[in-house]
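Subject: Sanity check before I submit

Could someone independently write out the C-alpha cells for this chain? I want to compare against mine line by line before I put it in a report. The sequence has 292 residues.
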Amino acid sequence: MKLGLNLSFAIKRWLGGERLAALVAGELETKYVQFTWDLVDPGWPVPQRDKLARDYARAFRRAGVTVESSFGGLASYTYNHILAPTPELRMLGKEHLRQAIDMTAAMEVPAAGMPFGSYCADDAVNPERREEIYKLALDAYVDLARHAKERGLSMLMVEPVPLATEFPSTAAQALRLMQDLDGETDVPVRLCVDWGHAMFRPLFGEDANMDHWARTVGDYMAAYHIQQTDGLYDRHWNFTHDGLVTPRLLREYWNRYGLTDQTFFLEIIFAFEETDEFVLEDMKAALAVLRG
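---
Independent answer below. Compare away.
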C-alpha cells in the first residue's frame, strides 16, 4: 500500500522547507506528503505567503518528495466556511478556499482540499435552512472549481467529518455531494476519507467501517487519512497506540478494493505539550509498524 504523511505532525516544530524536507525524506524515509495549511496560512499577505509556500514545495522536490496535495488543518477547521449562517461568513469561507487554491498553485501542487463546512447550531436542526445553505454552497464550489482550473489545479477534495452538524458526515451525504457536483465543475471534486471519521460509532453505528464507505462512494475516493482511533472520538492517535485500525486491516482494505494510486496519508495530531524528541521517535515507530 502507498503510504504518505500529512504534515500535521510537524506544525510549530519543524519549520522551513529545507528542515522539514530533510526530516521527511531522511529520518522518516517518506516520498509522498500532503501539505497542511497550518504551516502556511492561505490568508497571509500574498507575497510573503507564496514565498514561504514555494520554499517548502521546492525543498521537497529537491529531496525527492512529492507534495500530492495541500489540505486544511486545525486552524482552517475552526470556522464554518461556506455552510455558515450569514452571507458575510459564507463569502469569507469561499474566499478562504480561493486563497488556498492560489497558494497551492504557487507551489505547483495539483490538488487542494478541506472539509466542506459546518452549519451553526440552529441551522443544523432546521431542514429547510440546511437545504437552502447547501445549494448556495454547491454554487460556491462550481465557482471555486472554475478558479482552480484557471490556476492550473487538476482536483479539489472534500473531507467528510464525523459530526451531524456538518456536511457531509455520512457516506450517503458524501454520495449526494459527489453526484450533485459531478459533471458540473471544471475540475473534479473528490473525497479524502479519514479512517477515524468513518469508524465513528456514536454517529454511524453498524455502518462505522470503511467497507461501508467503499461500497457507497468508492468511485469518488481520491485519497485517505489514516489514524488510530477507538471509534468513540476523532482521536488522531498514532499507530504506536492500540485501537481499531491495524496495519493488517489497512492492507486488506487496499488489496480488497484494488487500490493503486490513492495514498494513505498518516494524519497524526500530537498534543503541543509533547516534546519534539518524542514526536519524532513516535513517528518513526509508527511508520515502522505500518510498513511491517
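---
OP: Matches mine. For the report I'm noting this point. The beta strands are 3-6, 32-36, 66-71, 111-114, 117-118, 155-158, 166-167, 189-194, 221-226, 264-266.
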